[in-house]
Design a protein that fits this description.
There is one protein chain. The chain is mainly beta. The protein has one domain: Immunoglobulins (Immunoglobulin-like). It is 14% helix and 38% strand. It is built from 1 helix and 9 strands. A 5-stranded mixed β-sheet has the order 2-9-8-4-6, with no helix packed on it. The longest helix has 18 residues. The protein is extended and about 70 Å long. 14% of the residues are buried.
């Protein structure tokens, strides 16, 4: 009985390993984890935005036409390419008594690849 069990286990292991020999390939040209990010504090700090891509992209921020004030989001990079690029974004303290919102805009340099622009909404809580 033990011999049959071990033989079956060995066969299952061989089949699993044989199925894992295919090279995995990333097929999505540009992606992010989420298009909504809540900044955890009204104080200054930083967050990370992971970007997955097979194309080169550019990053900018849209603060909206109604926003008057200095830019409050500061990325450590504004372009990149690669499967798991994490952009560190420093944010300033929110001096307002209402939450504020901006959008991280990730634009593929070559749109012929099928990659589309991604907008991530970033919301920071109000000063209490």
């Amino acid at each position: 009985m033990r011999k049959i069990f071990l033989t079956g286990l060995l066969c299952a292991l061989v089949l699993c390993l044989a199925g894992c020999t295919k090279k995995w390939e990333w097929t999505v040209p540009l992606a992010v984890n989420s298009t909504e990010v809540n900044i955890p504090s009204n104080l200054s700090g930083h967050i990370y935005i992971p970007i997955y891509s097979t194309v080169t992209w550019d990053l900018s921020f849209d603060y909206g036409e109604e926003y008057e004030g200095p830019e409050w989001l500061h990325p450590d990079m504004t372009s990149g390419k690669g499967y798991n690029v994490c952009v560190r974004v420093e944010y300033d303290a929110n001096p307002f008594h209402s939450e504020r919102t901006a959008y991280a805009v990730i634009v593929p340099r070559d749109t012929s690849t099928g990659a589309e622009t991604i907008r991530i909404r970033l919301t920071q809580p109000a000063t209490r």
